[in-house]
Specification:
The complex is a heterodimer of chains A (114) and B (109).
Chain A (H helix, E strand, L loop, with lengths): L4 E3 L2 E4 L5 E6 L6 E7 L6 E7 L2 E5 L6 E5 L5 E5 L8 E8 L9 E2 L3 E5 L1
Parallel strand pairs in A: 2-11
Antiparallel strand pairs in A: 1-3, 3-8, 4-5, 4-9, 5-6, 7-8, 9-10, 9-11
Chain B lengths: L3 E3 L4 E4 L4 E7 L6 E7 L5 E7 L4 E3 L2 E6 L4 E6 L8 E8 L5 E3 L3 E6 L1
Parallel strand pairs in B: 2-11
Antiparallel strand pairs in B: 1-3, 3-8, 4-5, 4-9, 6-7, 7-8, 9-10, 9-11
Classes of the chains: A mainly beta (114), B mainly beta (109).
């Protein structure tokens, strides 16, 4: 039973570039949430997708956008990258009908901005 | 004021010690509460949910005081393998998890 998988594992970009991160949820899950974890901080909620729509959003600018596909996988896009976007990006999946808990996390994508 | 605040840490304890972590949350409408564990450079993993009546899972005991908006985690008989960062997590509206900054525990032999 595959857990949450994220790609790529690591990524290096420069300021102003755009990046796309990918997530496949745990088998049987239909909801995907994205979190940003800066060094020394706890994860911060970016947004959540269910039925291919953004259902909830945290305090992140419009540069952060996402998408969910019919197979429940998801992408996180970040435009006009800033140095402060350097972080571990975590994807979590869950089942909507049971209240979305517990959430299962992937290993994350470590994004470095030069 | 941060939504979820935890003890600053780090906590350095010998094997066999009992250690307690505290956490406070600001939103009285918070619905559910959890402790997650995160090993260095790894993903967070659910350690246990926290209920008002208090709950125990082996050496781990979690308590919730809704009136004080306070959550605690007690680890008894610490093991080397307990070394990790412990994240206090609150569920508010919807299903977005709000994480504390985390408290680092280091257990030494």
């Amino acid at each position: 039973d595959a857990g949450v998988t994220q790609s790529p594992t690591h990524l290096i970009k420069t300021r102003g570039q755009q990046v796309t991160l990918r997530c496949s949820p745990k088998s049987g899950h239909d909801t995907v949430s994205w979190y940003q974890q800066a060094l020394g901080q706890g994860p911060q909620f970016i947004f959540q997708y269910y039925e291919e729509e953004e259902r909830q959003r945290g305090n992140f600018p419009d540069r952060f956008s996402g998408h969910q596909f019919p197979n429940y996988s998801s992408e996180l896009n970040v435009n006009a990258l800033l140095l402060g976007d350097s972080a571990l990006y975590l994807c979590a999946s869950s089942l909507f009908d049971v209240g979305g808990q517990p959430q299962h996390f992937g290993d994350g994508t470590r994004l470095s901005i030069l | 004021r941060k939504e979820v605040e935890q003890d600053p840490g780090p906590f350095n304890v010998p094997e066999g010690a009992t250690v307690a972590f505290n956490c406070t949350y600001s939103n009285s409408a918070s619905q559910s509460f959890f402790w997650y564990r995160q090993d260095c450079r790894k993903e967070p993993k659910l350690l246990m949910s926290v209920y008002s009546s208090g709950n125990e899972d082996g050496r781990f005991t979690a308590q919730l005081n809704r009136a004080s908006q306070y959550i605690s985690l007690l680890i008894r008989d610490s093991k080397l393998s307990d070394s990790a960062t412990y994240l206090c997590v609150v569920l508010q509206a919807g299903t977005a998890l709000i994480f504390g900054k985390g408290t680092t525990l280091s257990v030494s032999s």
